[in-house]
Amino acid sequence: MSFRACSACLLIILFYFSPQHARGQIAHGGTPYGYALKSAVEISFLTMPKVDNNAMIARDAYSWNKSGPYNFGEKTRVNLGLDNSGFWRTLENGDRIWNLGIHSSGAYSINLIFSEYELPAGARLFIYNEDRSDYIGGFDYRNNKAHGKLATSLVRGEAIIIEYYEPASAKGLGKLRVGSVTHAYRDVYKVAKSLIPGFGAADPCTINVHCPQGDEWQDENRSVLMLMVNGSGFCSATLVNNSSNDGSPYVLTANHCIGNNDGSEFVSLFNYESPVCENSYPRIDQTVSGTVVRAKNKASDFALLEMSESPPANYNALYSGWTRSLTPPTRYICIGHPSGDMKKWNEEVHRGKEFGYWRTSPKLSSGQTEYGSSGSGVWDQNGRLVGQLYGGSGWCDDVNLINYWGRFDRSWEGGGSDSTGLKNWLDPAGTDSMYVDHFDPNASSDPEITFQLNMAYVEDLFEGGVVRLHIEEPDAWVAMADTSGDGVYTCTLDLDPGTELSYFFSYQNGSDSVNDYLDERPGLLGKECVDDEGNRTFTVEARNQTLPAVLFASCLVYPELPEITYQVDMNEVDDLYEGGGVWVSFGNWDNWWVMRDDDGDGIYTATGLLETGTNVKYFFGYQTGPNDNSDYTGEKQQLRGLECANAVGFRLLTVPDSDLTIPVVVYGTCRQAITQVFDLPDVEPASLFYNAINDQVLISNASEVEHIEVFSITGQLLIDMDVNRQETIQINTNSLKKGVFVVRLRLENKRIQGVKFLK
Description:
The strands form eleven sheets. This protein has a 16-stranded mixed sheet that branches. The protein has a six-stranded antiparallel beta barrel with strand order 26-27-28-31-30-29. Strands 7, 10, 13, 14 and 16 form a five-stranded antiparallel sheet that branches. With about 750 residues, it is mainly beta. Strand 8 and strand 9 form a beta hairpin. It is built from five helices and 59 strands. The termini are far apart. The chain has five domains: about 5-185, no CATH class; about 205-435, Thrombin, subunit H (Beta Barrel), CATH 2.40.10.10; about 450-545, Immunoglobulins (Immunoglobulin-like); about 565-665, Immunoglobulins (Immunoglobulin-like), CATH 2.60.40.10; about 675-759, Immunoglobulin-like.
């Protein structure tokens, strides 16, 4: 490729001039030295080959979809170094300045990739436009990378000047070479939407991230960035946390965005967004140059990059949490950069899942994705990342639009190696975590611990009385407040990670503000254990946490009692109110435990201590509407699991002498009893039930059974197994499709009538 000098050299009068806008990646401040020089210097501009902006846009239209970067520029390879282009001048003190002018007619902006970049201490690099209204820099030795490259962000205009300053003490030590020049044929700065896509160019149904719809997603918004790919295209990406919360700058995007590139020529642009709901001028000064590709896989179309350095504190970036749950989310929230525009928010609805992908459609009046959204993160209802955008097609009026999102759970193992899976990068300590919450490096160094006490069912709380938290060491009382008026009292403390707490609650049950208090230690249920004194104990972790507890009645603490965990799968329930409660109740609504979906997988659990031998009857309830007091459904016989239901629908349990987990599934309209009770010759009655949680048939009191066969309803033998007289028999049924099956059991040489079960 050859270049010609501009026939009419531009005369640059170099004198002090205050620039309107300065930025960099990561730039270290300062003003170009040429701005302060008063001598007139002629700079010859190299003219780049002509680029037809309209022709480039027309070319892109043929491949207009979401399966690739949003192209904004035409990149031309060059070889422009300190040794073969530009010119040097020496200052009176022996310092030197090298300048190179580049002109590309009709370019909205120009950006560069330095194929060689190695600056000595004291040297600095700036790039500014012809009228000095925009510049980036200064870059110095702190921008040196192992790969020896530097990719820059955009400088407005069709003509730029490169300025390299080298002190006399470092003469000849710098290495600098421009390897490519990108002519922007789209105006990414354009504020008003026009025929040329760019700033403000996303379709009108897209929603700026700071509009009211996005208010509750501003934490997630801080993790979203626009990725400049090889100097000529844009994709969306997300800064992600790992299980160590150590701020490793990992970025999740789409595999098809990066192709076979090594990431060294990528630029990460943070906070490219309108600060208000209406379109307004965004900031473009917060960038990080260079990445390394750590892992990628075509199967779920993910790519994990590591930025060359962490974003500075003033970027206010947040490392997004994630979950690798296989359960489809109840909400899909996407934030990205459609058409290379400012950040947009949209909500999607579930349309099924395939191997490697979630399938969704934009929710009515909730925005959409577009070309350039590739790599956008998608979050579940708990604000945890569940995947990244692979592709799709359609516009605002496309009612058939389907989007495909690479599933985080599929990307976790990926191809089974470090270079094809997320696991070893995002779980370096090997915790095997199902989810990780976000990490905010700009938050207080001490995590916030919120103590939460549900007093709604306490009858002797004095009207207007005080509820308090007591921490043993240091000895301190903390007042709690019911700010929502729902009987749930809270207080929040900043505590050092690793602190071991011993605490209990106290509430005022009489008019004497000094003496009328009742200390509640064992009368609480929650997730934390209790010590010998009945206090609750907890070790503070390096993350914000909420510690829920419910005051339900007086009780005694038996340290050796078994721990009973109730577990309810609500994934097939259509009428659970969004954010509504799920409960397990012991005989009536006055004695209940709150159940929580901590993993965001639709499975609710509650754990507590019960005395061995106690006969417990219980049922479950869940909230079906906005009314906290009346909109509940009591699910009794409509549950299938380990225990049978009695005549009135309560489920029965005799508490064993060891820990027990009781899994059940809410599945809708009640059918015939799932648990089958039948007689075996000369032994106590046995029972058979299908456990949908583990996809197993369990047969109890079966010590006389030697052999089992499972048939389809048409008589086809599906399972044939010896069981060796086990008290409880487990039959894995994950190979069976849904339907009705018959189990036949053999005792010695006797065969009994088959028992049916429904899967």
